[in-house]
Amino acid sequence: MARTAKKDAVLRRIILASICAGTAILFGLLALIQFKPLLEAEYYTRDLRVRFGKTAPIAPEVVFLSIDKQSYNDVLMEEEIAAHPALAEMSAGSWPWRRSVWGHVIRRVAEAGARVVALDLMFPTPKEGDDELLLALDEFGDRAVVGGTFEEVSNLGRTSVQLALPAPLAAQGVTEIASDNPNGRVGYVNLWPDADGIIRSAHYRRTFQDTSAISLSGRMLEKAGLGARIPEGATGLIRYAGPPNFNYKAIPIYQLFVPSTWEKVFQNGEMLRGKLVMVGPYGNWSKDFLKTPYPNPMPGPEVHLAALGAALTGSFLHLPPPWASPALLAAAALLALLLILATSQPVLRLALLLLAALGYAVLSFLVQDRLDLVLPVVNPALTLLLGGIGCLSYEFVLEQREKRRVRGMFSTMVSPEVLAYMQADPDRFRLTGEKKMATMFFSDLAGFTTISESVSAEDLAKILNRYLTPMSNLVTKYGGYIDKYAGDAIMADFGVPVWPDADATSHAWKACWSALE
Asked: Which residues have CB under 8 Å from 126's CB, separation 6+?
């Protein structure tokens, strides 16, 4: 019997290990097929770690000139507007502005000594002022960048991707956006989100029709002589410098041309010397907002600034190698098994599982915050919790089945207190020897032989049932255990298989009380 008990224990552990391993395999397969609910949950936990973790440092080389209004007519006085032709065009009250404005901006910033100036703007069709813009691009092409875009076009049910170059440079063709063309003046402004529509990565280069195209921020880096800062693979998980409107300071673009602000804000251009200058729309009027890990949408130029700043400061997050995810799932399954085997208390087991899952979530936050490593959270945590809960469920079913078995065997033989004790720990009661002090109880009916000869078998059974039931109740009332019935005789034990009284010797006098009653 001892060997059987050992085999049962080994089988139980094998089944528990199988439950944990099966849970790990299940979540591994769901991760492999990128099961949408789990994938979105993982993205959400990653975003939470971004929101509450450290932010990337502000790159001091970057200046952001914002187009914060469609017209500055209500901001500038007449004499200020007269100070520069660009201000007159900005204050004319129409948007988009005449494109000569952008020629003035490029010239002003480049002549101040900026390393590069980029316009986060697109000029898809020819407009008035293109000649002035093209003149500035030709003059300062080694330091100027404008935006292009990849667009999906549907035709007869078929979708294709086309490149839209700025109208002044359209004649130059795709070479203007090619990454291997150092004289190119175009960078694409596209930002590709993850499956849930949130932008977490910067793509500095993308292949288009066998041409390696370069992004707006990537072109800025290359023209500034900082192309080596682009991460390997030309893609990187951005660590943002802060939530929307709380990272790179926005300086209204009109201040470039107002003499007082040119002197006070830009120190007559000295503030722009050696800087990477980004120009882009900024404000509700622009409708240029994108979803990022932060709750509120972020203006498009800020996302480009985040990509630029991440490259300049090396502030990228990194995914672990491919083997890390299955290794973490296996570790979570093993931990769940160990926690289940560590104690037999269900509440304590559940508490340990929850604490372990919470501890792993905290660990993943610290690893991402301190080491820039993004560990998967959802699948390992669910493997730990559901693997452990699966084991708890299995053991609960076993326990209930064992309780039913014990109840079926002993419910008519022992007191309710003893039965409850036996059900709580059935493993204690095996068919093996155990030396104990106990009191034996025997009773029978005087003259039973004569009675049995004078009645039929059916009547005798009725007599015995009416007699044995109340007599058995008197035995179990005092904690006795019905050992067996032999016709009219009752054999009972007091003190075994368990005696719940605090007084270990009380079984003797309780047996006497039962006999007397």
From this structure: 167, 168
Bridge partners, 316 (sequence order): 238
Nearest to 237 by CA among 314, 167, 296: 314
- Average pLDDT of the residues in 358-373: 95
Label residue 44 left, alpha or beta by phi (over 0 means left) and psi (-120 to 50 means alpha): alpha
- Tens of pLDDT, residues 134-147: 999 999 999 999 99
The amino acid present at 237, given as its one-letter code, is L
> pLDDT tens digits, residue range 149-201?
988 777 766 777 888 899 999 988 899 999 999 999 999 999 999 999 999 99
Amino acid at 432: T
pTM of model > 0.85: no
Does 411 score more than 80 pLDDT? no
Does residue 473 contact residue 513 with C-beta atoms inside 8 Å? no
Q: Which of 224, 225, 223, 203 is nearest to 214 (CA)?
A: 203
Cα–Cα distance, 175 to 52 (Å, whole number): 42
336: tokens are: 């769940």
CB contact set of 271 (below 8 Å; sequence gap of 6+): 63, 265
Q: Which residues pair with 117 in a beta bridge?
A: 144, 277
Amino acid, res. 187? G
β-partners of residue 158 are 155
Question: CA end-to-end span of the chain, whole Å?
Answer: 39
